[in-house]
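Entry type: protein chain
Record version: 2
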Amino acid sequence: MGAHVVIVGRDPQRTKEAAEAIREAAGGKVDAVVADLSFQAQLRRLAGELLATLLFINVLINNAGGYWNTRHTTADGIEHTLALNHLAPFLLTNLLLQRLHMSGSARVITVSSNAQAMGRINFNYLQGRHSYSGATAYNQSKLANPLFTIRLASAPDLTDVSGRFFARRKPRRSSNASYDQATTTQLWNISAEMTGLTKTDWSP
């Protein structure tokens, strides 16, 4: 579609190879940036690099995710599943929000999964400190995705569509839990606190 694409990966060689594969398959300009999205310092560095090099950001796709059977934490002291699957897209989107607004009809897609239907946001369990379950942590993080956002990229008929959940390219109703406004507000506030997000991060 003639877009300038920027991809992000943890491994420099694999990220470079992925960019080259996209370039060969579709042409156009494809840049590779290296960052581990589970580390907030690297997320902030990434956002700074993108803001310094991209005058416009028309589409942001939050796609990174992971699943771990055993509990471990990031350098920020946050359970890894929560850090990567939810807090990473939450923080990155907010850090880029002003540039997205400036770009006109920008879109944000956060990739979830059908696991969101089995998820429940348990604020006492958010980091799984006492009785960790990989499945519970993953399902909870995937429910956090539609609670945080969902917007689809590129279809002209979806210009005015926001906050929708899609499966197999069609709008679907996500789980009932994903429409809980009180949970959404509490999750947003806790996420902002855990990422050190302040209004100055995203406002002019």
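Comment: The beta strands are 5-9, 30-34, 59-62, 107-110, 165-167, 170-172.
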